[in-house]
Write a structure and sequence with these properties.
Number of domains: 3
Number of strands: 19
Largest sheet: 7 strands, parallel
Radius of gyration: 24 Å
Mean pLDDT: 93
Order of helices and strands: HEEEEEEHEHEHEEEHEHEEHEHEHEEHEH
Low-confidence stretches: none
CATH architecture of the largest domain: 3-Layer(aba) Sandwich
Structural class: alpha/beta
Helix content: 25-40%
Distance between the termini: 63 Å
CATH superfamily of the largest domain: P-loop containing nucleotide triphosphate hydrolases
Strand content: 15-25%
Oligomer: single chain
Bound molecules: zinc ion
Length: 449
């Protein structure tokens, strides 16, 4: 028997589905061309960009064809290809109700936001949720998701970052234990199945078309979603014509901040952390940036600071702007902190997960890292040091996110964040301004002590 459900609300290439199904769709339904011409230019129908290969290549169709470079991670869209889809029928009647199994309590701020989110979902509206790091945004979504599921809606929670998806999936599964959830990302072991609730990386949205009644994008300002026209298009294409779209972010970009400020979009701001303590405000400390070549490096402010923390058994993260610099500083740390246990991690490090886990388990005195750990990670009781905070890799958002790693737990709501810098960057100034502003709003609203 043919399983049509695999194509409900999907947008697939021939190689994504079995032949029998492809034939059925071709016979009874319509497949759309994968390349369209608009304004005289060839455009990929899946990502809507004109990022087409510069020449034609020999193709499986026997001719030479162009292909799309933009969305190639999800399979090569060739000029001669068709995209197959079937309308989303919302066939979820078999699921048990009620769904939500959670008896945690929301803070006043969270429950207010939860109400706004639920309303946007019920009324098929768009909403931006600007929630500071550590405000507990996942919990605020539960009620809205529950309402959507009850209304037989199909829901997708997407994030540009795999680690966010991987952290979200077990939490969502735990509170909706009766609802099957497909978790989709590049390299996932589990294949696609038709489910009412989907957790996916934003790249996976290229494979959907008018599938979802609710799309929630978590960490909307993160790479690679930010400024990526293809992924933005994929998001809007994955939604039904009547649907709601919720953006979650702790650090909206300038454009989004402006839209919020000028009331051009529905938005809700959560300026306080769930534990009711203010966000740590980073302290800026001057330090010449060529530390490695210092004669009296042991006497530098940074090293003295690190020694003090190790002596106090206060664990910390030290952020270093580039892999090259991290590798340069590592031997220096080995020499100076010969009795401390520490590791360093970066994006190309195969043992990244294990090292992060070690830090989580309290087995390390400190962890040196590039911006790879700027978001999505939570450690209990830590301080944060940013080395060369004026380096251009640190954007306003990155600095706010990194600072947000400190003071997250209820038992240790205070953590110190230090920017070591030689110059003042615009991003540093703006990050400080943003953190102070959020604390001020939280204070005015009576949300923090
Ligand atoms: Zn494309
Ligand atoms: Zn071809």
């Amino acid at each position: 028997m043919i399983d049509y459900s695999l194509v409900y609300g999907r947008s697939l290439l021939k190689e994504d589905i079995d032949n029998e199904l492809t034939e059925e769709i071709r016979k009874h339904f319509q497949a759309e061309p994968a390349f369209v011409i608009s304004n005289g230019r060839k455009r990929c129908a899946r990502c809507s960009t004109c990022s087409v290969s510069s020449k034609r290549y020999p193709c499986t169709c026997g001719n030479c064809c162009l292909y799309c470079r933009e969305c190639i991670a999800l399979g090569k869209v060739r000029e001669c290809a068709q995209l197959y889809s079937l309308p989303e029928p919302n066939r979820f009647d078999a699921y048990k109700k009620p769904y939500l199994k959670w008896n945690g309590k929301l803070s006043d701020q969270q429950s207010e936001a939860s109400g706004v989110i639920t309303k946007s979902i019920s009324e098929n509206k768009e909403l931006i949720v600007w929630a500071v790091t550590g405000s507990g945004k996942t919990e605020m979504l539960f009620k809205g998701i529950q309402i959507a599921l009850e209304a037989n809606k199909r829901v997708c929670i997407a994030s540009p970052r795999i680690d966010v998806c991987l952290e979200l999936a077990p939490r969502i599964k735990r509170v909706f234990p009766e609802i099957p959830i497909a978790v989709l990302y590049g390299g996932a072991e589990e294949g696609y199945r038709y489910t009412q609730l989907v957790i996916a990386t934003t790249h996976q949205l290229y494979r959907f078309k008018e599938a979802f009644d609710v799309v929630i994008i978590d960490e909307v300002d993160a790479f690679p979603y930010h400024m990526n026209a293809g992924l933005h298009f994929a998001t809007s294409r994955s939604r039904k014509r009547v649907s709601s779209l919720i953006y979650l972010t702790a650090t909206p970009d300038k454009h989004m901040q402006e839209r919020i400020k000028n009331n051009l979009t529905e938005a809700v701001i959560l300026p306080a952390r769930y534990h009711g303590h203010a966000l740590p405000v980073p302290k800026a400390v001057y330090q010449r940036s060529e530390l490695v070549n210092y004669k009296n490096v042991d006497q530098s402010r940074l090293i003295k600071h690190m020694k003090r923390l190790i002596g106090q058994e206060k664990r910390f993260l030290i952020f270093i702007p580039t892999i090259a610099l991290l590798e340069k500083m590592q031997p220096l740390f080995r020499r100076i902190f010969d009795r401390a246990t520490f590791e360093s991690v970066h994006s190309k490090d195969a043992d990244r997960k294990e090292k992060v886990q070690k830090m989580r388990n309290g087995e390390l005195d400190f962890l040196a890292t590039t911006t790879i750990l700027e978001r999505g990670v939570t450690f209990g009781n830590i301080d944060v040091i940013i080395w060369q905070a004026d380096h251009h890799v640190y954007t306003e958002a990155a600095l706010v996110q990194i600072s947000g790693r400190a003071g997250r737990s209820k038992d240790h709501p205070e953590g110190n964040v230090t920017f070591y810098h030689q110059d003042w960057s615009r991003a540093m100034k703006k990050a400080l301004k943003q953190i102070r502003r959020m604390n001020r709003i939280a204070h005015t609203r009576g949300l923090i002590q």
